[in-house]
Amino acid sequence: MLIEEDNRSFEFLMAILNGVQWREDERKNLGGWAEGCFVDERPDFDEGKHEEERSWRDDQRVQLRHAALAIRCSLHGLEPLKVKTSALRSMLAWFWMRQEWVCLYATGISAEGVSLERTDLRRAELSGADLSGANFSEANLSEAYLFGADLSGAYLFGAHLRGAYLIGANLIGAHLRGADLIGAHLSGAHLIGADLIGAHLSGANLSGALYNALTRWPESFDPSFRGAIDVDISGRSARD
């Protein structure tokens, strides 16, 4: 696959596609192709198999859709890709059926309100994504990259966010009850009005994270001791 751990092929490919040798109109055309490829959920089966022998596990297009999504999200100068729940879930479900882990690479996507509860998104690259109001309840987002992502109002009940990179993320009004945030990187995150009751915050970095009187913390937890800033006392704006 194009997107794999310890494989720099994708990095080299994008350096070429975003380099001076590719014109802006060429990148736009490629982006259009990649977007169309990703959103097309029609399966592609081996023509040598009879229809009754085919199953969704045999769809030959899913890995292409996965690579196309990564390419589209990584091309410079394009508008954020708007993504719907069905397109993401159908792709992720194929890897789940085959019991294979896949790294979702979707920086900067616009996926407001998507429903991805209980999905395996370990080490996903979602930095800068608009995930406001999305449902990630009980999803596995361990070590996911969510730098500057908009997770305002997102549902993360019981989500696994151990070691996740939420630096500068917008978690205003997010629902994080019972979430595993052990070792998570939350420096500079906006936690105004977030619900963290029952969340596990051992070893989490909260330096410079912003909260207020509406933020709900685990019992006996002192956020100021961990470096978080109470905007009601400091006068800081939630947008600072």
From TrEMBL:
Gene3D superfamilies: E3 ubiquitin-protein ligase SopA. SUPFAM superfamilies: Pentapeptide repeat-like. Signal peptide: none annotated. It comes from the Bacteria. InterPro entries: 5peptide_repeat, Pentapeptide-BTB/POZ_domain. Pfam families: Pentapeptide. PANTHER family: BTB_POZ DOMAIN-CONTAINING PROTEIN KCTD9. This is Pentapeptide repeat-containing protein. It comes from Polyangium mundeleinium.
